[in-house]
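User: Please predict the structure of the protein below. I'd like the answer in structure-token form so I can feed it into my own downstream comparison script.

Assistant: Understood. Taking the following sequence of 315 residues as input:
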Amino acid sequence: MRTFLATLGTTLCLLGFFQPAAAMTRVPPGNRHAEQPPIPGASVRRTRAGKTTFDDKYEKIRDLLATDEALRSKIRETARAYGIDPIHIAGALVGEHTYNVDAYDRLQSYYVKAAAYAGNSFQFAYDGEKVDDFVARSEFSTCARYRDSYHLWTCREEVWEKTFRGKTVGGKSYPDNRFSAVFFQPFYAGQTFGLGQVNPLTALKLSDLVHQRSGIDRLDEKDAASVYDAIMDPDKSLAFVGAAIRQSIDDYKEIAGMDISGNPGITATLYNLGNTLQRAEALAARNRGGGNALPEENYYGWLINDKLNELRPLF
């Protein structure tokens, strides 16, 4: 019987009825670069302005993770919900607080900061045009086929890049800047958005996944205050960090045939850069026809891999 089934399977493959699944490439641990890639000038200037150093900021967030059992517990719980190693979430937090913002001394401080947003009236808009009205334009009609939040908002972001960014449409000019920066940041540059520094547009993309895995209400672009509540409150924001990492792992598996789950430096890099679907597509296109290029860490992810011996024992 086994011989018959094996023969049948071989015959069907030859006839084209089905094809064996492509082999998954497991991205090895560690850094591909011997030295840390260059750190962006904006991060350097921000750190100097704060009269601190990257080493000091790294040590501050590392120490917060080491001394705050409540935070570590929340990270482990979130990691279980999204089926990932907690070191991935820790890596995202360490990277953000080393290169983008300075860590508070206690988890409670993040709750206090989040409370400052409660009850305020916010709106996602540009030059008087609300984002919900903007994405209702005919240029975005191609996105209507998507029902899940991730592909819907990713499509809308792509339409912005191709059709509106830095262009004049219908007599109105639009900035040469990211969709998230133009429509989704009503506060001054550098505004802190919680533990994971989650962007409001990213939160909208991940809304369905977070609802499914964590039970948090789906977000609505018409209710900006609820979006800020979700990304500022540590009890909710960690879910979006976990979801972002889960999504990046899934994108690279499904699109590029790469398993990045064993390399926290790569998931941290993607957390820093965003747009993982497009990056996975670009890597897949690069390897089409027999290529074997692997994803590489940037300065942010390089640090995480370099510090794993200090960070992993915490979890």
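That's the full token string. The two ends are 49 Å apart (CA to CA).
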